[in-house]
Write a structure and sequence with these properties.
With 98 residues, this protein is an all-alpha fold. The protein is built from three helices and no strands.
């Protein structure tokens, strides 16, 4: 009985070792094929984009009276503009008139 169990265990071990060897061989063949076979994947052309002309920005916090902010937000909604765009316009007008 012990001999029968020993033989079965030995068969299982050998089967696992054979599977591991087969997998290793398959993996090494795959690596060789990858190195020997030229790639058929099309290469993407890389182009350097031109500067977009974006202006460098600085972030800052402004404390406004609530009613003034509500008016600015209302104007932005009516004119479909962001609050930032309205503030930039207002500051540019102020600087021009200064």
């Amino acid at each position: 009985m012990y001999l029968h169990i020993y033989v079965k265990i030995n068969e299982l071990i050998m089967a696992k070792e054979n599977k591991a060897k087969a997998f290793g061989l398959e993996l090494s063949n795959l690596g060789k094929n990858l190195m020997e076979t030229p790639s058929t994947t099309p290469m993407q052309k890389v182009t350097i984009s031109k500067p977009t002309g974006r202006v460098e920005e600085t972030r800052f916090t402004v404390h406004l009276p609530a009613d003034l902010f509500d008016k600015v937000r209302e104007i932005g909604f009516k004119e479909k503009k962001k609050i930032k765009a309205i503030m930039v316009e207002a500051l540019e007008k102020y600087i021009k008139s200064y």
